[in-house]
Structures are given as structure tokens and as C-alpha cells.
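Subject: Interface between my chains keeps coming out wrong

I've been trying for a while to get a sensible model of this assembly. When I model each chain on its own everything looks fine, but I need the whole thing in one frame so I can look at the contacts. Pasting all components below, labels as-is. Any help appreciated, I'm running out of ideas.
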Amino acid sequence: MHVVIAKVNENLYDGEAASVTLPGAEGEMTVLPEHEPLMTTLKAGVITVRTGDPLTGSVQEIKFEIEGGVLEVRQDGATVIL
Amino acid sequence: MAGLKAIKTKIRSIEKTRKVTKAMEAVSAAKMRKAQSSALSARAYARAAVSILARVSGSRELKNHPLTRQSSQRPDKRLYIVITSDKGLAGALNSSVLRIVQNEITDFEQYSLERPKIIAIGRKANDFFVNRGYEVVYHPNVDIIDYSLINQIVGAAAARFTEGAVDVVKIAYQNFISTFEQRPTLRTMFPLSVEELQKVVDDIIPAKGAFSDKGLTSAQSGGQTFVVSYTVEPSESEVLDAILPRLAGIFVYHALLETKASEHSARMVSMKSASDKAQELTHSFTLQFNKARQAAITREVSEIISGTL
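Reply #2:
Try treating it as a single job with all components included. I did that and got this:
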């Protein structure tokens, strides 16, 4: 799925990802491909983007510290604005 | 001979001025490109924010939110965020922005006693409104455009709007269209509306030049209009509380960047014409110098000849 994590003055991440773990308003959550459409606020914490193929085990993790934001999940991906 | 010397000094000083304007032209060209490319780097954010807002735009919560609330009576209390540069030497850049604000204020003062308040960004705007006795409520330093600066500006405007100290917040800036064309622009920031925001996002991509790719963006935003039902957590109003100040941040951020890009391109153009003018002057003074020199030689020769006769 396509993941965009953007600040108003820079793009932190823009690309494909296998999963994203975020500090949602109702607790930590992980978004996988085909997640139902969702809109939520984010609390301060760490976003972890995992790229690569989980089946073969070649997974890279990229972490971003955030102070809050909004997450939107669509059928084709997820967007975080900080 | 004194005439010759004076002309020579003049030529030399014009040459020196030309070197300075030439250097300023080159510096502005480089800064302009940087400002333009940073404007584009934030496009993903703006597009995402607009698509989220478009999805919640029909909801009752949005209409009743403190930041989108339309004033019921005539909007008497106004706040203008005016963005100019700190330095001059950029043609009509600052004066045209100040003029559209001044015109609107003048129209408005014919039927209202409320003096508008000003948030002045850039020294030229501050000087202008302070000299005319307006209340400048906030004058931030904008050497570096970063996240916290944007939040401070949005915060200063949003706080006054939500507590009812002002009914409408407008933002005036110089919109970058191309290197040779900038347009002073006045937009309503609060009450926040999807239409105004969409216009700002459309303006991000310049119409012409190296960074224009309008076809791409309209195709992409057109593809996102399908309607899906969303799960909203924890509640729609909390999502709006989080997202509306961020959308207002887009206004401020782009206004700042557009003004920066416009400032540098306007300065580049005016420095270029100054350099050209200097070259022209050097040329005409050189001609004058040569004529004077030739006249002196001719006079000397004729004096010598008349002496021998």
C-alpha cells in the first residue's frame, strides 16, 4: 500500500509499505493493506513504517517521532499529516 | 581636461554599480529556484489535507466548528495577515500587496468604525501599518520558515477568531505565477472553507516555468473523488479539531513561500533591468568621453599649427 507521511514543510515518507504502526487516539494500531477506510487523530509517539516482504523476512523498519497528527486510511493506502 | 576626468570617474562608478546589481541578480535567481522547489515539496501534504477535508465537508460538525463558523451579522471586526519582504529593491512587489489591503480597508472604513487589526509579516508591512496608526497585533520574525513559526501565526489568528475578537481573518500575499509575473492576492483564511483552500492548493503550482505540471495534479485529485464510508475515531469533532488548524497552516505556509519566490524573482528582474541600464549608461558616457578627448586633441593640434604659422 502507498503510505505518505507529510509535514507542512516537508515530506517525511512517500512510498510503498507493508505495514504502518501508529499511536492512534484509541491506542496503538497497525494498518495493513486492505484496511477499512478510517480517519483518526494521532497522539504523540512513534510511527513505524515497515517495508519489504514480511513472508521472506526481509523487512526494514523506518521510525518517525511525532507530536500528533491525523491519519486517513483509504482503500489504496494511508496518509498521515503531522 | 577636467571634463575628461569627471566623465572617467562617472564611468567607473557606473561600472561598479553594475557589478553589484549583476551579483544581486545572480543571488536572487538562485534563491528563487530554491523557494520554488520548496513550495513544491509541500504539495503532498496540501493535497492530502484537502482530500480529508473534502470528505468531511458535508458534515454538520464542520459547519458548527469554531474555525468555520460564519459570522451571523456583518463581519465588522477584521484581521489582516499581510506578508511582504523585509528588504526593498524588488519593484512593485511590496507596494502592490499593501495597496490591495489598503483599498479594501478604505472601502470598509466608509461604513464601519472598527479599525482592522494587522498581523504584519515582513518589515515593510510592519512599517506601513505602524506609520498609518493601525494596531499591529503580531509581528513575527520570518528569517526561517519552519513548523513552529507557522503554528505561531495560525495560533495568533485562530485564537482571536475563536474567541470572537475578530469576525474574519484575511491573508494578503504576493502569488508567484512566473518569473516575470506575480499577482497580489487576498484570501479569506477564517472562516475556513473548502473552496478557498482548494484555490490555494491550485495556486501552489506555477502556471509556467520549470515547476509547472498542472496536468498531473488535477488528474490525481480527480481520481480521489469516490465516496467511501469512513470509520472516524474518536469522534468527528475531534478529528476536525486536529485537522482544521493544519489546513490553516497550509494557507500561511504557502503564502510565505509564494511571497519569498515572488520577492526573489521580482528582485532578479529589477536587478537585471538595473544592470542593463548601467550598461547603456556606460556606453553613452564612453561615447561622450571619446568625443571630449578627440575635441581636446583637435584643439591642441590647431593651437600648435597656428603657433608655427
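Reply #3:
Confirming on my end. The mean pLDDT of chain A is 87.
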